[in-house]
Specification:
alpha+beta; OB fold (Dihydrolipoamide Acetyltransferase, E2P); 10-stranded mixed sheet; 6-stranded mixed β-barrel; 29 helices; 43% helix; 19% strand; disordered N terminus
Length: 1048
């Protein structure tokens, strides 16, 4: 018995063929790269589209039908019972004080005043200040036009020595300030004021009255700061001796100390609204056009679940106090017992007992800065509800619409939810509504793309399978003779099988490892470049990472596939006789005595005579080449004129190399199918992105830079130059515009020349539904016969207005006051004594309008004609052309320049863009789907390289046949042409099959003419041709006799 050596014969043989080894390594690595990159791309895109779909949430709210702001508790209970409910948000408000930061409520518009709302704001004393100061001068204010009571009070100027309480914007140490004592407010206190002595130091209290303007006829009145009694009654000052502070701990001064400390608290107070999910609040949705992010993010439900100590603050507060994203703010929550405004200690009960209430200190990180379309509470901030104790804050027994909303589990459940709850809610006198979203539109386009992406995987799986079949076939074709020799030398089948398996598995393991890891990193890096960095309003951020376990699973699966295919191939070889393997592909199948193995075969070498006896005689006489039928003497093949002979020869080669031919065709067809399928996916994705771009409307609106700015005219006031500048940009598809004007007198009603002095507001609009249904929250409008809302869209000319009356819709209270009926006429006169007649074509119910009185509504075009260049606009909201969504940056740049020019001469304006859906969904979707476009060249390159390598190797496999042709006298050029044409024809046939598959899948034969698909096909054919040419060159460039020798 001969003992076999340990080294692996197949491994040595493979190493001795470096070109073949490199080809196998590259082929396995490239196809692994292609497959893993496509699976990675699929997973990233699927996850990203699902994430983007989360933008479209079903956010609902409830409304009491009889009272829009009334109790909805019963409706909230019904909602809680629904299986479709994800969570409800019962928002509550808490008062909190910052340790070392002042709030931004410095304009005192909602604080103590001697003007409007005096009783309402009398305890909102954040605008008060306390200081120790020296009186520099005291002057009497004289009413120059009032001889009955000439004194208006006193003007007192102080040098501020020390500030006890007050905003730094109102008072600072070392400052000289003037306070006014108003005699009309305190007519009996004049003798007390006369006790002030210049040069003496005092403890003084004053406040900024935002609604007070000194009468210009008064002398020595040049301040809006008002002197106020320390105790609110008759103690106007406390003298200070030797520049020392007054001991306020004395019982007699306890009330004054309390007032100082309250004002200190007020100036650092915030109104904290605790929410389950700020991103799901109806007012935070872009469609409401109320709140919008300036930077950072909204609070989301994850913050609530994790009790994250995070907060979102108002932009005016952040700017004034230099608050940035990432800063922390320390708060002390105080559980005030009574209702409060702006977070301030408001009720008398709380003002007396606030020190005794429990407090809860905590620190929060600023993660978002928001702005409102119009001015809202300046002290408002938001935190997650789970971060505060349950027992504090205003907790109502009843639920009201402003502090309640809910979110369904899926936007696809909305219809079912409505069907389930609508009847019960109606019985309770409550109606449900949902924030408008385009979820159905989004999913209608994205769902087919997701399904098509799933179908992508089997295509690339087929390519992987065929490529591995080719690898196994070529490897076993090269090693089968070695296998037969090893078996003939007595090596057991099990040992020979194992040795044959190991080299390919080693090559496969290394190449799969390199290819898979490279594809994983490449695809994720491209995903990181392609995906948007913008999180959704809900806080869900895009991610270009995947669990490493997926890579391990993919690599293992590919390796197992190679192992199974290789094992199957070795099993098929092992079933064939040793002699058949030794004699080549054309050896006749003859049953011999050695057809069945026995135990002796496993342990003994057969005697040489046995081998000779087992060789069939005709097999020894028949050449093993494919070319025995060619007569060497005639050498017909070498003659150019016998082209038919060449064709028959190539057909016989193809037929006798059936498996190789089939694999060549199959690989070409599968790669072309994959390229065509991927190209189709890219085109479909682009078409869907274009559809979303063209159906997503972006609106731009002109607002004050600081929405807390308040004027008597409303949201903002700007001239016609701004509006026309925007409309001339070429981006505006339509616009909603409101303009305003004033009339000072009613000069006649129905032809009667009665005249009334009046302050009448006019408002010109161009869209009735937007104004009455949205802005006035569904105001009821009654039109005269023959008139409707279309009167506001009509362009009224100067000639029409002069020839007839101006149609207008009057507020109901105006018509009742002056006994007006539909069809009546009213003459109104402006400050320039210009009069126009107005026809009462409608009236609308009284609704609160921010500008003050309910205005008379008339067509914008009519007001533009009447006012001309004097016209002032209050609202300008522009809908931009969806076709120009990709060029929005150009529009932004132009508008920034336009408003910058305006801001140099008027109150600063800004352009707010309602483009959240475009930024949060459409653009990120385009980026994520562009990953397919990025990986398309990779697929083409892999196909080209595999086509090149495959044809190169297959031609080199026929080296002996080529040598026989050369020995038979066929010229080198003719041999090269024959092999090149054969491989090219096989590849062409595979390409046509692949293209046919693409045409069938797309159901559009014209799609085959797409330039990029044709280019990919040509590249593949170019690679196949180059591989064949390189193979025949390397084959035919050697000595034919050297090729005929068998090298072991």
């Amino acid at each position: 018995m001969i003992k076999m050596s340990k080294p692996n014969v197949f491994l040595k043989s493979t190493i001795r063929q470096p070109i073949f080894l490199i080809f196998l390594f590259l082929l396995i690595g490239l196809i692994s790269f292609a497959f893993v990159s496509k699976v990675t791309e699929y997973l990233v895109v699927q996850r990203e589209t699902k994430r983007l779909g989360g933008y479209y949430r079903s956010i609902g709210s409830l409304r009491n039908i009889s009272d829009p702001y009334g109790d909805i508790t019963e409706g909230a209970e019904i909602i809680e019972e629904s299986p479709y409910l994800a969570y409800a948000d019962y928002r509550r408000e808490i008062s909190a004080v910052m340790n070392d930061i002042y709030n931004s409520d410095i304009d005192a518009l909602g604080s103590e005043t001697y003007g409007p709302h005096r009783e309402l704001f009398k305890t909102l004393t954040n605008n008060n200040f306390w200081f120790y100061g020296t009186l520099d001068s005291k002057k009497e204010m004289i009413k120059s036009l009032d001889y009955n009571q000439p004194s208006a009070g006193y003007s007192l100027t102080f040098s501020v020595d020390q500030v006890a309480a007050g905003y730094p914007e109102h008072i600072e140490e070392g400052q000289e300030i003037t306070l006014l004592f108003l005699l009309d407010e305190y007519p009996t206190s004049s003798p007390l004021i006369e006790e002030f002595e210049p040069g003496q130091s005092y403890l003084i209290r004053g406040f900024l009255d935002a609604y007070f303007t000194p009468n210009p006829t008064w002398t020595n009145a040049d301040s809006s700061l008002i002197l106020k009694p320390l105790d609110g009654e008759d103690t106007w000052f406390l003298p200070v001796l030797d520049q020392s502070e007054i001991d306020l701990n004395k019982p007699v001064l306890e009330e004054i100390k309390n007032e100082i400390e309250i004002d200190q608290q007020q100036q650092h107070s915030l109104l904290v609204q605790a929410t389950v999910d700020m991103s799901a609040m109806p007012n935070a949705q872009e469609v409401s056009q109320f709140l919008h992010l300036v930077s950072g993010r909204w609070l989301n439900h994850e913050d609530e679940l994790n009790a994250s100590k995070v907060m979102v603050v108002k932009n005016s507060f952040a700017q004034l106090r230099d608050i940035q994203i990432g800063d922390t703010i320390s708060l002390i929550f105080r559980d005030l017992q009574s209702n409060f405004l702006k977070g301030y200690i408001y009720s008398e009960y709380d003002r007396q007992n606030w020190r005794d209430y429990p407090t809860y200190p905590d620190t929060f990180e600023v993660v978002g800065i928001f702005e409102s379309r119009v001015g809202i509470e300046p002290n408002l901030v938001f935190i997650p509800q789970s971060t505060i104790p349950v027992e504090i804050g205003i907790i109502e027994d009843e639920v009201y619409p402003m502090n309640y909303s809910f979110v369904l589990k899926s936007s696809k459940d909305q219809d079912a939810f409505i069907n389930e709850t609508q009847a019960r809610l109606a019985e309770a006198g409550i109606e449900v509504s949902f924030v408008e979203n385009k979820g159905k539109n989004f999913w209608a386009g994205v769902d087919p793309l997701r399904q098509a992406a799933i179908a992508n995987l089997p295509v690339y799986g087929l390519v992987l399978l065929l490529s591995f079949l080719l690898v196994v076939f070529l490897y076993l074709l090269q090693r089968r003779r070695d296998y037969a020799i090893l078996r003939a030398l007595g090596v057991t089948q099990r040992s020979a099988n194992r040795q044959l398996l190991i080299p390919l598995l080693l090559i496969g393991f290394l190449s799969i490892l390199v290819g898979s890891v490279s594809a994983w990193k490449f695809a994720l890096n491209k995903a990181a470049e392609s995906l948007s960095t913008l999180p959704l309003p809900s806080g869900v951020a895009p991610s270009a990472t995947l669990p490493p376990g997926i890579l391990m699973g993919l690599g293992s699966g590919i390796f197992i596939l190679l192992l199974v295919l290789t094992g199957t191939g070795i099993g098929l070889i092992a079933r064939r006789s040793v002699f058949e393997l030794l004699q080549g592909k054309n050896a006749p199948k003859v049953k011999t005595q050695a057809a069945h193995q026995n135990e002796q075969d496993e342990t003994m070498l057969p005697p040489p005579t046995a081998i000779k006896i087992q060789t069939p005689l005709f097999a020894q006489k028949t050449p093993s080449s494919d070319f025995a039928w060619i007569k060497p003497a005639e050498n017909m093949v070498s003659r150019p004129k016998n082209n038919s002979t060449v064709i028959r020869l190539m057909l016989r080669w193809t037929g006798r190399s059936g498996l190789k031919s089939v694999l060549t065709i199959a690989v070409a067809a599968s790669f072309i199918l994959a390229i065509g399928w991927l190209r189709w996916m890219i085109d479909r994705n682009q078409a869907e992105v274009n559809r979303l771009y063209n159906t997503t409307v972006v609106q731009a609106e002109i607002l004050y830079k600081n929405p807390d700015v308040s004027t008597s005219l409303g949201y903002g006031v700007f001239g016609i130059d701004v509006v026309e500048g925007v409309q001339r940009s070429g981006f505006v598809e339509s616009a909603y515009i409101e303009a305003i004007a004033q009339r000072t007198r009613i000069s006649g009603i129905n032809g009667e020349n009665e005249s009334y002095q009046a302050d009448i507001a006019l408002r010109g609009i161009n869209q009735a539904d937007t104004f009455f249904k949205i802005k006035l929250q569904g105001a009821a409008v009654e039109y005269a016969d023959g008139w409707d809302g279309n009167l506001f869209t009509k362009t009224w000319t100067a000639e029409e207005l002069q020839a007839s009356k101006i149609p207008a819709v009057f507020p109901k209270d105006f018509t009742e006051q002056f006994n007006l009926m539909l069809g009546d006429t009213v003459v109104l006169t402006d400050e320039y004594n210009v009069s126009y007649s107005y026809l009462v074509v409608g009236k609308y119910s009284e609704v609160y309008v921010r500008s003050g009185d309910n205005p008379i509504i008339l067509p914008l075009s009519a007001l533009e004609v009447m006012e001309g260049e004097r016209l002032l606009y209050q609202v300008a909201r522009f809908s931009l052309f969806p076709s120009k969504n990709r060029n929005l940056e150009t529009f932004r740049t132009r508008m920034d320049l336009l408003l910058a020019n305006h801001n140099q001469r008027g109150l600063p304006l800004k352009m707010v863009y309602w483009d959240e859906e475009l930024r949060s969904v459409v653009q990120p979707l385009e980026k994520s789907l562009s990953l397919l476009q990025v990986l398309y060249p990779v697929t083409v390159i892999v196909a080209v390289l595999i086509g090149l390598g495959l044809n190169l190797l297959l031609v080199m496999q026929s080296a002996r046949d080529a040598a026989i042709l050369r020995v038979l006298g066929v010229s080198a050029g003719r041999v090269r042409g024959m092999y090149t044409i054969q491989q090219l024809l096989l590849s062409l046939f595979g390409v046509f099959m692949g293209l046919a598959g693409v045409a069938i899948l797309r159901s559009q034969p014209a799609a085959l003419l797409e330039k990029q698909l044709i280019f990919g096909v040509l590249l593949f054919l170019g690679g196949a041709l180059f591989g064949a040419l390189l193979g025949v060159y390397l084959t035919t460039n050697k000595n034919p006799l050297a090729l005929l020798q068998v090298k072991e």
